[in-house]
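User:
Hi there, any thoughts?
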Amino acid sequence: MAEGSLAMEWKTKWTELTAALEERVAAQQAQQALEEQRAREEEARVRQEAAAAAAAAAAAATQGAEALEAARHEAELSRLRSSCVPSIASLSLVPAALVPGALGYCDAAPGLRKDDRSWWRCLHFLEAEGLTPPLKGTEVGNALFDALDVDADGLLPLAEAGYALAILGGGSARQRVDAACGSAGAPAGGAHVSHAHAQAQLELCAKVRLHCGPIVRAHHLKASGGAVTSQPEPLYVPSAAELKAQLAQLFASEASLPSERFRAWAATSCPALFAPLL
């Protein structure tokens, strides 16, 4: 009986020791898992703080760059306002939104001409909207007309003139799109735009930019004697196939779209067509 009692006591003690050991091991494992979790959370917090700091630094750098660009642009506009030498770049003093009104003021149904002075009337109207010094009657104004006259027939259609003056004027991309589409004779005018008219509008813009852009830039550089403070972006004009593919995605199965939707799309999806020329 004594031996059996000792054996039972030994088993009980063994069971208690085993349970205590397992409990300590489980506690140690739980503590280790907790410490690992805390380490991961701390690492994630440090990474998040570093990412936030990097984003803040990038935003500050972007804001600083934008501020410098805005200051540079304003300084360039101030220089143009105070200049006494006619320049094509002076058209940037006129918001693109005013271009359709200037063309309407000229009362030239088919287009602008030099011989009937409709071209000079257009420039005269733009002077009232901020264009300075005057371009009417100058060699610069004469050279600009010749550069924009793609067909060299002495007639500058209003739709082409509206787009060309819009990308030479100031303002946002949407204002340039509105000016191009809102000018008399523009294919994409009206409350709704069909797929065919939208394609005709973009192809017209591409044609004018492709043929007139290099000539206008060359005239501007020559007139400034090479002393241009900021070089424009390289001139890129999307091909007809690219424009057709983009319009196919926009219209899908639709026959026409509201003009507002088409213009908003053009301002964001065709940056190469509606970027400032100079």
